[in-house]
Amino acid sequence: MTEIFEGLKAAIWLIVTFDADLYEIALRSLYVTITAVIFSSVIGLPLGSYLALRRFRRRRLVVALLNALMGLPPVVVGLIVYLMLSRSGPFGVFGLLFTPTAMIIAQVVIITPLVASIAHQAIRELWAEYHDLLISLNATRGQRMRTLLWDGRRALLTASLAGFGRGIGEVGAIMIVGGNIDHVTRVLTTAIALETGKGDFALALGLGFVLIFLAVAINLLIHRISGTEVHGRW
Amino acid sequence: MVGSIFPVEIADVTVRKRGQALLDGISLSLAPQGITIVMGPNGAGKSTLLKALHGMERLNGGHIQWSQPKSVTQKRQAFVFQTPILMRRPVIDNVAYPLTLRGVSSAEAREKARQWLERVKLGPAAHQHAAELSGGERQKMALARALIGEPELLFLDEPCANLDGRATREIEELLLVANADGTRIIMATHDMGQARRLADDVVFLNKAKLLEHADAQAFFESPTTPQAQAFLKGEIVE
Fold first, then answer.
1. What's the whole-model pTM score?
2. Where would one find coiled-coil regions in this protein (chain A) (predicted)?
3. ipTM of this complex prediction, to 2 decimal places
4. Domain segments of chain A: what residues?
5. What's the CATH code, domain A2-226?
6. Which of A7, A210, A218, B219 would give a disulfide with B202, using CB separation of 3.0 to 4.6 Å?
7. What angle do CA B111, B117, B118 make, to 5 degrees?
């Protein structure tokens, strides 16, 4: 119990004293995950919608694969991205290993299947709802697509937020490809792992509370901006 | 103005799904005016017939030939489903949607939608979201959305199935006005009273087959098939 109390105290202390390291680490966490979410959304939202609307051979296989990829173990993704980016790997020449860019790449690999899968599910449900109406009104393929994406925008936003949730709390992959280097690639989750290893539970918990606070705050902010959860809207 | 989509030739129409006939050799001639009521027990093929006429079913046999090409025909028809389809938009945008699909500017489409909402007495609900409407209001919204494109032919698939008396009466009044304004109506219903109130002619289906097609008066007074006689007496027809 005392550890949790000490952790809370440490967290408050870190925040109110504008601890420079804490802000640096927290901002880097946000930078890495938000960038990854943007890339994942750009890839995953259209991909998921496409899978929901188009019929082609092996579509079921692709969807099943996508759902399976949601469960990718981050550590394994980290390992593979590490091997790709390491000096002797195919992309070694870019010198990306142990940079925030490498961490973003790993997170994009982890998050994209999740975003695409949730988007697919949401658009498929909406399509089932709208199907008869859109067919009856003779909407063209492009019009159907635009209508579903527009009316499903809040569900698509949820897909992106789920991706953010997975990314911000992820530690395995970014630890491997980032290396948890102080002032370069240290983020909240890797810092927590490090402090826990050192036995500094108060600081680790403090960082943990900041992490939870950030995750909740971002979600609330996005909901506020987009007007979801407002009475009578979607 | 393009010519009418009538007359229509409906010959030997068959629709099968999973080996089961939903429509079995239906041939029918439909007058270009009036209200046709499609009656019959559950599973008789009422919805399938409406959807087939609207071009939403793949035919396994026979043909349905309107007097205009398919692209024109479908635009001149509208369909109101048994459960109103609510788009995740405000009521006014739900009603304006068919016009925006046709490339009408959104200001103009909304203005027309506003007029239609007044006509169906949903004016005050224009900016609510569709899901906030009651059952009767939803169906009136769907009706306004169907009529805004000024269809020559309107299909309704048991539009009042889950509605109370008042909502049903309002919808029927709207249908009579639309019909007087020149919209041909083909409607499936379970409700015997509603059929008597609205029908000019009646199509009676049972087990995927057309058993009778007659003037409303003739049908209600002297049905020729035993199934229709039993159905009109309120007996269970299987």
1. 0.83
2. none
3. 0.90
4. 2-226
5. 1.10.3720.10
6. B219
7. 95
